[in-house]
Design brief:
Length: 102
């Protein structure tokens, strides 16, 4: 397991734990209500959207290089946020297709 997969797993577990707490506290719709209620919430939303767009650009190229479908990961990211790119790295890895040592 390479460093990208280890970091992705740790982040996925941390994000999952915080998400479970947030869902238990305010529910799915409540998460979005908190974002809409203030300009700080909008800033966080736009920041997350910008970061995910950049991540999706990298994943798109990586998926092309690996000759795998990108659209399921795009759709999953739109529905699940950061969970999808983290799962992508866990499932597919990230970086060179070969493990050649130079």
């Amino acid at each position: 397991m390479n460093a990208y997969r280890i970091v992705s797993l740790v982040l996925l577990l941390a994000l999952g734990a915080v998400t479970i707490l947030a869902l238990a506290d305010v529910g799915y719709i409540g998460i979005f209500r908190l974002l809409i209620d203030s300009t700080a919430g909008w800033q966080v939303f736009v920041d997350l959207a910008a970061a995910l767009i950049l991540v999706l650009m990298f994943l798109w190229k990586d998926a092309q290089r690996r000759q795998i479908r990108f659209w399921p990961w795009l759709l999953a990211t739109l529905l699940l946020g950061s969970f999808a790119p983290l799962l992508y790295v866990l499932v597919n890895g990230y970086g060179p297709l070969t493990d050649k040592v130079a």
